Amino acid sequence: MTKKSFRGFEFQKRFCYNTKMLSCFLMKGAFMKKTFFWVLLSLFVFSVFSIVLPAAEPVKIIFDTDIGNDVDDVMAMGVIHALQNRHECELLAVTITKDNKYAAPMAELLNRFYGRSDIPVGMVKNGVTKEDGRYLVPVVEAKNADGFPVFPTVITPENSKNCTDAVVLLRKVLAEQADRSVVIVQVGFSTNLAGLLDTPGDELSPLTGKELLKHKVTYCSLMAGAFIPQLAKHKEYNIACDIPAARKFFAECPCPVVLSGYEIGEMIQSAAVSQQNGYCYVKNHPVQLAYKYYRGLENDQPLFDLTSVLYAVRPGWNYFGLSEPGNVTVNDDATVVFTPSENGRFRYLTVTPEQVAAVREALCHLASEPPQKQNGWVR
Ligand SMILES: [Ca+2]
Questions:
Q1: How far is the CA of 260 from the centre of ligand 1 (A)?
Q2: Dist. CA 141–CA 295, nearest whole Å
């Protein structure tokens, strides 16, 4: 190659390079413009939808429980706390229908374990099922090798009789909430809610208990009754333990009620393997310990109460089907009768085999999810 042809080649090469750079620059500019356009459009759409579709508010829950009888109440509290970690619900209060001095410490112990020791706990007055049951005493009284409690609590078996009356706490919490903003999850007896129905207006609220239920509560999610023909004679425990309260509540409750019947929990059982392995992120886990004393870690457990929590917080997730509306009457022998009615306030849950699998998976994960924060009281 001559010097001249080399220069010509160099010029050609440089020209090509400059042209390439220029086209790159122009393309980059176009790309930048395009990107900028899409960013602007996304921001616009986002801001419009932020105004039109505000973020879903957490579901405000009151958890009314006979904690200390079956262990599913304990697991249900684990589910509530896991859903609160996701900002899907807010636990306003726990009200207890098991009249035992270890029940309120157990509820506080769980709230404290999940970092929410300030949630108020109310105790039933003159309630039923006074016996200790299988797990309350060994969990509440659990001690470390140094003799200190594994799960220290402010409410103790000795002072739990001084807890706020559950009916008073229901009135107080409901009075403080906006209209139609609360879901009551009742997974024990109807003692407290029947008591609430009887209350007149007072210094907490001019509204009667019935009016508080009507105005403040969106609906009640109950684990109670049985709704398949094969269980027509079944005397479901939550009804049978306080039949007068159930009859009163079912007859007079002014707000809608969704029922998880006995058949739902029976169909949806936790896997024992979840209990054996899912809770091992901490040396002493109160849910696992209660399960061990009640059911034994090698055994499966029906997830009765957990289904009522799941429906209350995620009603639109297609975990369950719903019956047609109707009315429910409670017979003297604790059996229930559902009568379809267009204007009925009651519906009950149904499940397909596919839904059983999905609900079991969701509940096993949620019940065993680690707390987001701990307050250092678990040793
Ligand atoms: Ca229960």
A1: 12
A2: 19
33 CB-contact burial (10 Å; exposed 0-12 / middle 13-18 / buried 19+): exposed
Report DSSP state, residue 119.
Answer: S
CA of 147 to the centre of ligand 1 (A): 31
How many whole angstroms from 309 Cα to the centroid of ligand 1?
11
Q: Can you tell me the distance from the alpha carbon of 203 to that of 141, in angstroms, rounded to the nearest whole number? A: 38
CA–CA separation, 338 and 356 (whole Å): 23
Q: For the chain, what is the mean pLDDT? A: 89
Torsion-angle region of 287 (φ positive above 0: left; ψ -120 to 50: alpha; else: beta): alpha
What is residue 33's predicted lDDT score, i.e. its pLDDT?
A: 52
- Whether the Cβ atoms of residue 264 and residue 304 lie closer than 8 Å to each other: yes
| pLDDT 10s digits, 54-98 | 568 999 999 999 999 999 999 999 999 999 999 999 999 999 999
Tens digit of each residue's pLDDT (9 = 90 or more) over 114-152: 999 999 999 999 999 999 999 999 999 999 999 999 999
114/77 Cα distance (integer angstroms)? 10
Taking the centre of ligand 1 as the mean of its atom positions, its distance from the CA of residue 345, in whole angstroms, is 22
pTM of the model: 0.85
CA 340–ligand 1 middle distance (angstroms): 27
Q: Say how many Å lie between the CA of residue 304 and the centre of ligand 1.
A: 8
Residue 347 CA from chain centroid, whole number: 19
Nearby residues of 256 by Cβ (< 8 Å), 6 or more positions away: 218, 219, 220, 345, 346, 347
57 Cα: distance to centroid of ligand 1 (angstroms): 27
Residues in the 5 Å CB sphere of ion ligand 1: 66, 73, 187-188, 305
Rg (CA), the chain: 29
Residues 6+ apart with CB under 8 A from 321: 349, 350, 351, 352, 355
Query: 164 alpha carbon to ligand 1 midpoint, in Å?
Result: 20
Measure 241 CA to ligand 1 centroid, in angstroms. 11
Residue 216 Cα to ligand 1 middle (Å): 24
Distance (Å) from CA 188 to ligand 1 centroid:
4
